[in-house]
Amino acid sequence: xxxxxxxxxxxxxxxxxxxxxIINIIAFxxxxxxxxxxxxxxxxxxxxxxxxxxxxxxxxxxxxIYFSDYNRVLPLFTSMFxxxxxxxxxxxxxxxxxxxxNVEDRMGHLRYLIFYLLCGLSASFSHIMMNPDSTxxxxxxSGAIAGILGAYLFLYPYAKVxxxxxIFIFFDIIQLPxxxxxxxxxxxxxxxxxxxxxxxxxxxxxxxxxxxxxGFVFGAxxxxxxxxxxxxxxxxxxxxxxxxxx
Length: 246
What we know:
The protein is mainly alpha-helical. The chain has 10 helices and 3 strands; from the N terminus they run E-H-H-H-H-H-H-H-E-E-H-H-H.
């Protein structure tokens, strides 16, 4: 099920959302230019859970090394702007393009930026806690975008989302409520994340399911703190109250 667009027009220009998309694209182009140095770059700026635990550091390096705060903190931010391939990038940016502008509209530009970064941090922390021995670098905007999806679900649960639905070898385009589309997305992440718990995380790469889950839950919980307060509508017989408050 691939979302194509929603039916909620944004009332303001989503400057932050578009800027985030541009930064992600530029970062990916930079990755492509690194060539053989890409792997070391990803290991330096991706989130490696083992770096954040004493036992994990031994697994990662073969010896005890006390990483500086710089080497621990910086990847938490840089990792959310890196991607592992074209499909990874396009998929994430599609979701951000469709759902991010409306969330920014309800929060305001600065609040939205802070919210996005906090969702990304929450996603990284969730991934680290659920995979403490993993030496595989985790990268991608998926966790931060999952927080946007969680926020959108509670802000616009009945918005119509146009999706491309694969049916065997055919495809159909239908409209579904955001509650169903995003709810189904989260259930799938939860199912896959629970399934992944039975696999040794230090030996597996792939999708960071618990980063998605952590970002989504965080976004769904704190969205009401970041959204702008809606103004009470002024009824005809209350016009004088609005005038008096000026």
